[in-house]
Amino acid sequence: MGKTIAEKIISSHIVGGTLVKGESAAIRIDQTLTQDATGTMAYLQFEALGVPRVKTERSVAYIDHNTLQSGFMNADDHRYIQTVAKKHGVYFSRPGNGICHQVHLERFSRPGATLIGSDSHTPTAGGIGMFACGAGGFDVAVAMAGGAYHITVPKSVRINLTGKLREWVSAKDIILKVLSILTVKGGVGKVIEYGGDGIMTLSVPERATITNMGAELGATTSIFPSDSRTLEFLAAQGREDDYIPLSADTDAVYDEIYDIDLSQLVPMAACPHSPDSVKPVSELKGIKINQVCIGSCTNASLLDLTRTADILKGNTVHPDVSLSISPGSKQVVGMMADSGRLGELIESGARILENACGPCIGMGLSPNSAGVSLRTFNRNFIGRSGTADAEVYLVSPETAAYSAIMGSISDPTELGKMPSFTMPQRFKVNDNMIVPPAGQSEDVEVIKGPNIKPFPTGQPLPQSITADVLLKTGDNITTDHIMPAGSKILPYRSNIPHLSQYCFEVCDAAFPQRAKDAGKGFIIGGVNYGQGSSREHAALVPLYLGVKAVIAKSFARIHAANLVNAGILPLTFVNPDDYNNIELGDQLELGNILSEIKNGSEITMRNTTKNTCITLTSSLGERDREIIIAGGALNYIRETLG
Ligand code: MIC
Ligand code: SF4
Fold first, then answer.
1. Residue % of the chain over a pLDDT of 90
2. Which of 94, 221, 248, 562 is the 20 to 30 A CA-CA neighbour of 37?
3. How far away, in angstroms, is 246 Cα from ligand 2 center?
């Protein structure tokens, strides 16, 4: 039987388990990446593993999230990451070099290889044919130490693209279309593979826009074949030696197949407050806007900014609109400057920001109250922009730029002829902002500022747990609900005690104090609990606050793994209706939890307040069960390493 692209890469990297869908497999990791908001934790955990030098082919530490530097905290974290990277064999991409996913795509990604990153948009590198997954910081630390990455072998979805996009319709509209079909839960447990003759019309950065936002489907990853367009991109980056051809076998078997005719697509927008609330831009036309933000790891490539310049050239940003542009990398902004196209953006009145995540993670540029913001980003969860009542729409750079001039949501297909764009034969390559690690680790001193506090560790699983329900949430709770980001909080990513005050702030501001007073407790969740980011802070902070188990209808993949690594039980209802019979404050008893987890059997929970019995399942693999019993991944690894 033929293999899919993902199956080919997994089978060439498998070091444990089996390649059977739904079963666990352990894969060897060739490359890792971290960013600064999750990186401090990942390197603290790497240090705790006691391995002197990373064992991967390439590990890179990027600084791109916390670049506001109000206060000493961010700069201290950057210095810690720079020194720890230097000591342990990790390449360091300095602030100013760009957003991790854009830079990694340009400079390090390679088809056929595996990558995990402590950021959920790591699948961006799937655009070049890499098997690239977002993961919690601990899993990245383990991979750097030479350990395998454990996945549930995903099902495969094939999306056949045919035809060619119409003028002013772009890659963002393709992924928004896919989100409208599959929704934010439609990719859970699956790899999304693209094929069909339409893919030849898409360059690697366009493919990367699609695989980047595949994270919003909840997918394990998304991937394109490696073909002549891949070779063209690698050659233009001076890296043709990294090219290998890679495609699915013609008789590969997919669990689901969808066909999208590119020529039929129109500009799309994800409406507030979910990336899958997708409508055609034509239906939203005329909605007044206050802000437009172009950038992020989804849409800040040379092509994206060139299209933006095509539209802004000779125009002025509407007086009621503030337009910001954050380029994806130094390479992108450098080439825009050299070609004079940056000047066109500046002349139009665009506010040019640094090459970093910026407004995408709420670091500045929060909209005015009840403001309408059009963003080329990938997430529009409530409050993520920094303004709780803002209405954020996710659109393509073309829709964003045209609307910025018009002052209201506008359809770029109304614009005249689209200027042609040819991918450069040669990108501007200058890796002077990537600092290689030291040859001699012993000589490097790792500097930790006072904001860096030890991370909490779990306790071995007791025979039974009795505790109260501290919080009951609805469906699709995101990690931005559990542990918000933004300029006020992000500087404290290495300080769990401080962060804990903000846990679930948007849902129930009294939660942290209630949890502290109780000393221990449970969270009850709905469907797709923990979707969104890979931030393991969304598990470490609840651990710090005494949460013993999250009992939900279903979980998002990375968050479930982070809970296990933290030593918090992720449990699911066998009968989802039982969710309705639990209330805040109820006392729950997991009377025999240790044996039930050991045996992998169903779990019986008593609601002692209501005097009812509820059946739960853990759906944990053997290794996960051992981690939970040990009280988290660090304890487990220490035990297994003796
Ligand atoms: C995000 O887009 O939410 C982030 C910030 O990049 C996160 C990582 C983080 O929380 O630090 C992600 O996507 O994993
Ligand atoms: Fe940065 Fe935004 Fe991309 Fe996350 S989604 S890595 S915050 S640009």
1. 96
2. 221
3. 28
